[in-house]
């Protein structure tokens, strides 16, 4: 830290850690940053483990150092600097450091030497909660014991002062009231809300799709993936690599688009789908980071099916050789023509490209077809048609398909990989033929025939048991 030092508290203190100013001109009795001591005292009273107490104290001390540095930094006149903008810029500061485009985060990253980037997962797991609690403790204490750290950000915001704040100003403590009111606007209103934003799951209720997404016709899939490259295309192998990956693994489009080079094991021919928020993502912009998504996946390993796996590895080699740009600063596998991550491209544009290739491969109608259709195809195939050695009927058990598709529950698998209508239609046609061949009278004997068949099954089972006993 630049402005403070974190030290163990004296034995006489209830807190485990205190934060001391490093300003040489500050009197010794004023070096201790009291709001931090209040916070660590609160931590100690809650009985956290030693390592947790230390971790949370370190997170908050770095946050205070950041805010303090902001309080003595001269920003450009066109940059709005308030307690809200400083606090909300902290996430960008942690994630991007000196590569941030946010002027507050970028300026402070250079000033504080922030070169080691923080992962989104660390923010979500402990940084967010530790700062939230510090702000809540500080808010309650500031009413009676004012802290002037944030005063620079509100010295010109007289329009926010209530009558209480004007009175407090006369007592040289009006800033405490200002901070108290301001933090109420900064802190989330409900416990489940987040202080620092993270990409959320897609809300399908907001999707404006005039049709239902359909499985890609499996009988057309190989021709679709093995079609000839257009003469002028510069992204053909990228697109076919992506489509083959979706067909071979059944992954969500967002999962496939966020595959990075370390996720590909060419020796064992394996591809892993990993949470982008569980690791750092160097080389992408703040706007690109906002477009990262993760719906949740139980397994990061994929189970690739043929012939799509073979097609994927063939196209991957051509894509990396002919189209991939290795000097773009990030390691996402799929790129736009300009080298930026493909996951940040427009979804409707990606679906439009797939439909163009699908029509070229002979699909008569592409209504309801999108990149997600390949995931539907994978689920439909593995659940209903996939040949299984030693099993009279094709198709894997639904509990296995659940694992293949990374679902948390079988309910999700039933939704995405439901039994195909042509199987149901085949059963109905067979039953209809049976009835039509025997005429209307078949209904009068249908229950009798059912019981006769059941009796035959029971006799066969009894004979089998007797044979086993004799052996």
Tag the structure with descriptive keywords.
two-stranded antiparallel ribbon, elongated, about 50% helix, two-stranded antiparallel sheet, about 475 residues
Q: Count every helix, treating DSSP H or I runs of 4 or more residues as helices.
A: 18
Gross geometry: elongated
Overall average residue pLDDT = 79
Radius of gyration: 31 Å
The secondary-structure class comes to mainly alpha
Low-confidence stretches: 150-183, 199-210
Order of helices and strands: EEHHHHHHHHHHEEHHHHHHHH
The total beta strand count reads: 4
Task: Give me the side-by-side strand order of the main sheet.
Answer: 1-2
Percent strand:
under 5%
Organism: Pseudomonas hygromyciniae
Domain Tyr recombinase: 208-429
Protein name: Site-specific integrase
Keywords: Chromosome partition, DNA integration, DNA recombination
Walkthrough of the structure:
With 471 residues, this protein is mainly alpha-helical. It has three domains: 4-186, no CATH class; 218-385, Intergrase catalytic core (hpI Integrase, Chain A), CATH 1.10.443; 439-470. It has helices at residues 34-46, 50-71, 83-96, 103-112, 120-142, 163-170, 174-186, 218-225, 236-249, 253-257, 286-290, 308-322, 347-360, 372-385, 398-404, 410-416, 421-438, 442-470, and strands spanning 4-8, 17-21, 264-265, 270-271. The strands form two sheets. A two-stranded antiparallel sheet has the order 1-2. Strand 3 and strand 4 form a beta hairpin. 30% of the residues are buried.
């Amino acid at each position: 830290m630049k402005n403070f030092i974190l030290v163990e508290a004296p034995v006489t203190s209830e807190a485990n850690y205190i934060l001391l100013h490093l300003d040489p001109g500050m009197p010794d009795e004023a070096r201790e940053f009291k709001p931090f001591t209040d916070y660590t005292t609160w931590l100690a009273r809650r009985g956290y483990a030693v390592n947790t107490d230390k971790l949370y104290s370190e997170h908050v001390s770095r946050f205070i150092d950041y805010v303090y540095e902001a309080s003595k930094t001269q920003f450009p006149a066109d940059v709005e600097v308030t307690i809200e903008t400083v606090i909300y810029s902290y996430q960008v500061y942690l994630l991007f450091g000196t590569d941030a485009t946010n002027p507050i985060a970028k300026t402070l990253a250079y000033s504080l030497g922030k070169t080691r980037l923080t992962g989104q997962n660390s923010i979500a797991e402990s940084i967010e909660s530790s700062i939230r609690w510090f702000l809540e403790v500080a808010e309650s204490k500031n009413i009676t014991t004012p802290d002037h750290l944030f005063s620079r950000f509100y010295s010109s915001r007289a329009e926010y002062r209530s009558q209480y704040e004007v009175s407090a100003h006369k007592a040289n403590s009006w800033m405490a009231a200002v901070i108290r009111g301001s933090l109420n606007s900064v802190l989330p209103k409900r416990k489940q809300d987040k202080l620092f934003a993270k990409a959320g799951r897609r809300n399908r209720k907001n999707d404006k799709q005039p049709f239902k997404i359909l499985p890609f016709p499996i009988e057309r899939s190989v021709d679709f993936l093995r079609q000839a490259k257009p003469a002028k295309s510069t992204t053909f192998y990228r697109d076919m690599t992506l489509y083959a990956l979706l067909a071979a693994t059944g992954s969500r489009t967002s999962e496939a688009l966020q595959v990075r080079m370390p996720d590909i094991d060419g020796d064992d021919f394996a591809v892993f789908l990993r949470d982008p928020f569980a690791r750092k993502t160097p080389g992408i912009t703040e706007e690109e980071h906002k477009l990262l998504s993760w719906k949740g996946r139980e397994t990061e390993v994929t189970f690739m099916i043929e012939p799509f796996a073979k097609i994927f590895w063939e196209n991957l080699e051509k894509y990396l050789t002919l189209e991939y740009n290795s000097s773009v600063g990030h390691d996402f596998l799929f790129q736009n023509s300009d080298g930026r991550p493909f996951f940040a491209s427009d979804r409707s544009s990606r679906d439009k490209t797939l439909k163009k290739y699908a029509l070229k491969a002979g699909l008569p109608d592409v209504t309801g077809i999108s990149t997600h259709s390949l995931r539907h195809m994978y689920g439909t195939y593995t659940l209903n048609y996939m040949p299984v050695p030693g099993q009279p009927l094709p198709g894997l058990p639904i509990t296995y398909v659940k694992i293949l598709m990374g679902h948390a529950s079988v309910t999700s698998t039933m939704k995405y990989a439901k039994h195909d209508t042509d199987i149901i239609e085949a059963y109905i046609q067979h039953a209809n033929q049976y009835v039509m061949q025997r005429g209307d009278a078949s209904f009068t004997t249908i229950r009798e025939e059912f019981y006769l068949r059941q009796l035959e099954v029971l006799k066969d089972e009894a004979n089998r048991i007797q044979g086993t006993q004799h052996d």
